[in-house]
Amino acid sequence: MKLTLRVWRQKNADDDGAMSTYEVDGISPDMSFLEMLDTLNEELILRGEDPVAFDHDCREGICGACSLVINGDAHGPERTTTCQLHMRSFRDGDRIDIEPWRASAFPVIKDLVVDRSAFDRIIQAGGYITAPTGSAPEAHATAVPKPDADLAFEHAECIGCGACVAACPNGAAMLFTSAKINHLNVLPQGAPERETRVLDMVAQMDEEGFGGCTLAGECATACPKGIPLVSITGMNKEWLRATRKVAKH
Amino acid sequence: MWEFCGMARTDSGLRKALGRIPQIREEFWRRIKVPGTGEEFNQSLEKANRVVDYLELAELMCLDALHRAESCGGHFREESQTPEGEAARRDEEFAYAAAWEFTGTGEAPVLHREDLVFEYVHPTQRSYA
Ligand code: SF4
Ligand code: FES
Fold first, then answer.
1. Does domain B8-89 have CATH number 1.20.58.100?
2. Is the pLDDT reported for residue A133 higher than 80?
3. Least CA distance to A53: which residue of chain B?
4. What interface predicted TM-score (ipTM) does this complex get?
5. Handedness of CA B61, B67, B73, B74 (dihedral sign)
């Protein structure tokens, strides 16, 4: 396959940045999107040019590091992570636009790499339990109803990629934050911090400069792990409950 | 590493690998080309640093595998096997964890032995016979 790539190039956080055009040839439809970029970078290095910086780690859809807006869509045309997107989703001769996540809370570090440490700080604000866990406890020691376990697991699938923020017209992080809160708040292990967790994580989310939710629903459409939009409703419910409970004390 | 320090290792293979790695390191430093500088966000430099680390680690793995002349766990020295082809342990000589102290690239590391003491369950020779 022969492709024309328009790639966002930005030297550093202070640089204005602009799209640059590159041609790549000999791309196999079986390559992943990142392997296609590796091919481009090998050529750039041989030509003595600066390779395109982009984030990646596991390349198997579980770490959440890879993060590209491809033709305007977070993670591109398939509902998966950029690393699990294959070139067979494109056609020979296509022009592909590649940009970083765009959100004021995710400043660009270089080219396609953004700083997502705001997510880490949201987790630090409450994405943990304080009960000592020790080694794996006996599975039946704490009874968890099956629907609760399923709900927790569904939310634990969030890999923190940030596609929800990139897709949101408000740059909101509510899908991510709700995934983390619902994951722990539904389980007995997470119960002791149920109120402080939601209050602290939402406060941190606001402090990081993420926008608010207007139920556009773009996040749930872009999410490679299928975190549903109702998770946000669940978080709002938890937040209301917590504010009332804390006010009573 | 695949060829000489894989699942099955031999004295001569490990010595061959230990001869090859300094050559690869020399070639690496002679031919390496890293775009950009160290003063900026530089993923190419990050990768080059990892290769340097891997060369050190590879060398140490071969050295340790050569030093441990017994077979044990995932370390199978072809010279040390039972008549049935099982890994032959030599606990009298090797019942310790080897912690190697780094003394500089290409320098011989210093061995610190941490003896393994088994109070209740003692290691035995595996045998399916
Ligand atoms: S909710 Fe989905 S899109 Fe958002 S960070 Fe988690 S996995 Fe990524
Ligand atoms: S590189 Fe880990 S999810 Fe894509």
1. yes
2. no
3. B43
4. 0.81
5. positive
For A83-113, the pLDDT digits (tens) are: 999 999 999 999 999 999 999 999 999 999 9
Domain holding A194: CATH number?
1.10.1060.10
In this prediction the pTM is 0.86
Which ligand approaches the C-alpha of residue A156 most closely?
A: 1
- Best mutation site among A32, A60, A78, A113 for ligand 2 pocket (most ligand atoms within 8 Å of CB): A60
Nearest ligand to the CA of A63 is 2
User: Could you tell me the end-to-end alpha-carbon distance of chain A, in angstroms, rounded to an integer?
Assistant: 65
The residue segments making up the domain with residue A66 are 3-109
CA A82 – ligand 1 centroid, Å: 13
Other Cβ atoms closer than 10 A to A247: 7
* DSSP 8-state class, residue B105: T
Q: What are the structure tokens assigned to A135, written together?
A: 């080694």
| Structure confidence by residue, pLDDT tens digits, A2-52 | 999 999 999 999 999 999 999 999 999 999 999 999 999 999 999 999 999
Ligand 2: distance of its center to the CA of A166 in Å? Answer: 16
Among A15, A209, A219, A10, residue whose Cα is nearest residue A105: A209
Nearest CA in chain B to A54: B43
Whether residues A244 and A132 fall in one domain: yes
**Which 3 state secondary structure label does DSSP give A2?**
coil
Q: Is B52 exposed, middle or buried (0-12, 13-18, 19+ CB in 10 A)?
A: middle
CA–CA separation, B60 vs A246, rounded Å?
57
On whether both A128 and A184 belong to a single domain, the answer is yes
Cα A62 from Cα A70, distance rounded (Å):
19
Residues A223 and A158 in one domain: yes
